[in-house]
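Everyone, describe these structure tokens:
***
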Amino acid sequence: MSTSNVRAALARLQKVLERHPGAGLHEDTEARVSWDGQLACRAHDPAGAEILTDMPEQCGGTGSQVTPGWLMRAGLAACGATCIAMFAARREIELTHLNVTVRSRSDVRGLLGMADGSSGPVDAGPVEVELSVEIGARERTAAELEALVAEACACSPVGRALGSLTPVRLRVEAAR
């Protein structure tokens, strides 16, 4: 499968941004979530795409949908894979396969706001995250592919947000 259309689109975008760097900063598409009752939620984008979430039965959910934590891991994996594919296309590297897996470990006590003895509250976020990449390409060495993955993942917006702990501003509008 040819990636020339991807390479051409990225080259055009880069030329525009070199001439007008300020055009690079933009508002991202918002993600809206509505509560469906119990612990089920429905996320939707302005174009109408939907993703349903719920929690496992042991947390009071039905376990019938993906969890928000899984969605975060899927977002990290998808963003990583997309960036790798973009960087490969720009360098005319013909990928033969690409699989990205994200694993994490979390302490559910943080989700419940519990404390860990005398050390204070347990962090609700993952205590460790691992991004694993399986990649293959025609006529490229393992070292070349490792360098490609490292460079691409350093530019992953989701990876950067999670890795640098981008502050999240909280704004609350109470319904009357």
User: Anything to note?
Assistant: The chain has five helices and five strands. The first helix runs from residue 4 to 19. The two ends are 55 Å apart (CA to CA). Residues 26 and 163 are 21 Å apart (CA to CA).
